[in-house]
Amino acid sequence: MPLDQQSAARADRDSLFHPFTSVADHLRDGPTVMAEGRGVRLKDLEGREYLNGMAGLWCVNLGYGRREITEAIAGQSAKLSFFHAFNSMSSEVVIRCAQELLARAPVPMARVFFGASGSDANETQLKLIWYYNNLLGRPKKKKIISRWNAYHGSGVMTASLTGLPGMHTLFDLPMGPVLHVTCPHHYRKSPAGMSEREFSRHLARELQELIEREGPDTIAAFFAEPVMGAGGLIPPPEGYFEAIVPILRKYDVLLVVDEVISGFGRLGTYWGSQRFKIEPDLLTSAKGVTSGYFPMSACFVAPKIWQVIAAESNRAGLFGHGYTYSAHPVGAAAALATLKIIDEESVVANVAKLGPVLQQEMRSAVADHPWVGEVRGAGFMLGIELVQDKVSGAPFPKEQLVGDGCCASSSTGVSSRERSAIRWCLRHPWCSSARSLMRS
Known about the structure:
By secondary structure, this protein is of the alpha/beta class. It is built from 16 helices and 14 strands. About 40% of the residues lie in helices and about 15% in strands.
């Protein structure tokens, strides 16, 4: 029997351990319980409606209630609900999905490795990097460089890559051979008076000095989101990737582009790599690959890495990595339906057209507010830096949680994020119309 809001809230507090949630706040205030979604709108158990300003959790990019996807899931579940990919096993729908994804890669890629989430995909990338260097006889080349404020997952190693101290404290992280460099946020991190291009060159020098200090023969890879997501919706400063990629190539450091959020159109190009003219050696995708209708991730592996793995396979033996739900046939069916909609409905072109509208309208609406230090973003990713003092840029104390007023609530009617005194974030579904953007 369905639960009403009061009984659902009580049952939730008594039974469910929520991720990324203050336990104390939750036990005091209880949950917001969603009941249904259609298009870009959500409705909770009390009938209140919300504009889905963050696309679920960066993932429901085609909106709720897409029958093409739900019917594909139902049909595949009835036909072949599960099979694995271990020991050369496969299924036809998974094979087609791999082909379709490779055909859409931003640069030529050799293979796709499937998983169930962005976190497990980045764990796969880490193991591939170490495996690759071991096959090449480079046992010391194992250190990974990430950036403060980056988000690459919540596993032990992926949370170590993640540059958010709140994900390290009390978990004894980071661990392993992980190094962090400065967050490329011009507003907060640039020395006074530096232009964006000067700041990019400054960050490139920092990266080069770190590699030389640690020893190029020890640095294996550099992880980067095209636009930083959970760390604050931070686009790179002008000339950033142009400045750092040559350094990575000089020292034979693999470039891993984390497109879990930006992939499949969020920035107005199919991949964030295309928007910033990046050529990844490894690319991580998830979320939008099924529009959030089924848990799935895909790691793209460049030819130079695959060729080493294939050439050394007889000597190395079994490739000892994978997950029960790697290459899930139902996920593959959901992905194929999603990719078809993206193509047929020109979804990426819609983001390219409306993204600048979203950015400009938000700047016009709030940039002069005394609490707004910066409005930033790209495509359908938008962040607002909240400040206590507009002139100095001083942030509010974190304990004030000023951003709480901008989170999902019946008063705003907009589902957004961030419970923070620092920033407020929007990540619209790609099917958003100009009207829904203006409402937000």
